Structures are given as structure tokens and as C-alpha cells.
Fold this protein.
Amino acid sequence: MKQYLDLEDINDLDGLIQKAIALKSNPFNHQDLGRNKTIGLLFFNSSLRTRLSTQKAAQNLGMNVMTLDLKTDSWQLEFEDGSIMDANTAEHIKEAAAVISQYVDIMALRAFPTLTDKAQDQKETILKSFQKYASVPVVNMESATAHPLQALTDAITIVEHSTIKRPKVVLTWAPHPRALPHAVPNSFAKAMQMMDVDFCITHPKGYQLNPEITRNTRIIYDQDEALMNADFVYAKNWSSYADYGKVLCNDQSWMITSKKLNNAKFMHCLPVRRNVIVSDQVLDSDQSLVIQQANNRTYAAQAVLKELLESM
Ligand code: CP
């Protein structure tokens, strides 16, 4: 693996899942691989899980870790080629990415979408600019349109908790007061398309994800129908893609309750708003996998970093 910008960078998803599960049993087996290697974790946005689990993954492999909060602790970056930088931006991505590349062996980046400029978000300007001007592998820690470390985590969690060969997995939209990005549902949909699962998506009308991502995945607008006989229910809010970044409805009847979940396992990437996305009763039950899922963030990241280190 030469980079991890999206799920397409994985050659063999089933193989990588098994490698991550093996790392979970023996996390310190490859400490020599990362010795004298450094990862730079660069954040334009907040994080709890991604920041700590990626750091832990790198340390498990013997790497050094440097973290930079680009919004608060660094210069404001310019991404436009040929820009006359006489306003707020103090440093161009060309210099920034080249300089950081001299300090680190792998660069990992989090940069959320604007949710106001669809064309710019779809271009993945920040992630792609770092990739273009960095001379080291780049890892996506959630970009405008993708969260592939989360999706790999979710795939690992489903494999670990499946009791049947081809489980039914439902991605359901759930209400939220604020406009949220599409990165998690996009990447989850892609991962499920790469796995041998019975996968469908349910959401209110107007909340269709990018059709280039959902492709021929079944979309069911009746949530109860979609959830019938589900083995895994993955709840997530996202804002409208067609009416870009808008909150079109806040229908509380879409919240996941114990009755809706029935016998399925509950998944969410976290952070989650209790009694908005999902009821306390579900989150506090044995059917919730959210804590185990968050634990798997470490081993998903570790499996990816190991592949990158082995390719150097
Ligand atoms: N799921 C996830 O990416 O969590 P953080 O935003 O806390 O990193």
C-alpha cells in the first residue's frame, strides 16, 4: 500500500481485516517495523477517537508521533495555485507539505468539508493538495467525502460479530439538529459493497447520498421495512447531498429504539447524540457495539500503517 486516501487503496479487504484482527491479539509484534520512523497527525478539525487510536496504532508499531492542530497552532494555509497571498493565508501548501515531509515518514490528515461548496468539497482540495505536494505517504483521517479508517473499523467489527455467513446490514439515516458530512456513510457504503453482506440503506426522501457511491445499493425509504430481520443496524446522520449541506427534516421517528433494533446489533462511529440518534436503552444494552467499534479504530489504523511501512 502506497497511501490510504480511500477504500480503493485496499487491494484485499478480507485479508486486511484478518491482519487487523491478528494485530489485535498481538499488537506489539511489529515494533521493529516503525523504529526510527515518525508519523505526523495533522488536524484541521476536532477528534477524539481518530487522534488517540491512530497515535496508539503508530506507537504499537514502534513509531514516533507528532501532532499538529492546523486550525489553531499553525499558519493559515493557501491552496490555490498562483494566488496573490495578500489576505489571511500566510503559507502555501507547496511549502507546508514539502517541509512536513522532511520531518515525517507518513502524514495523516483530517479535513472536513465546508458543506456549503459542493464542488470544492467533491474535489477534496485539502487532502489532494497534501497528496500532491507531500513526498511521503498520506493517510486520510476523514476528509470532505471519505472516512476510510472508520469504514475499515466497521468492516472488522462486522466480521468479528457476525454469527451467520452473509449478515443483513442496514445503514439508516437518523435525525440530528446540525448539518453533518457524508464521509462516514459514503465510506461505510463502499466497504459494505466490497463485503459479502446483504446491504441496504434507508433514509427519508431528499437524503440520497452521492449516487456514484451508492451505485446499485438498495435504497428503502420505509425504515421499518429496511430494518426487518437486520443483523447489524448502523445509524448515522448526514445532511442532504442534493440540496447540499441542508437539514431537510428532523423527524424523531427515525431515532433508533430497542423496538426498531429488535435482535440486531447497533453500530455508530461516535460521537453520538443520545436520545436523538439512538435511545439510551439501545446504547446501554449488550446489543450496542459502539465501544468495541471504537476499540477497533486502533487495529484498523495499525493494519494500514503496517502496510505502508512494509511498502517503504
Ligand atoms: N469516529 C470518529 O472519527 O471519531 P472522532 O471524530 O472523535 O475522531
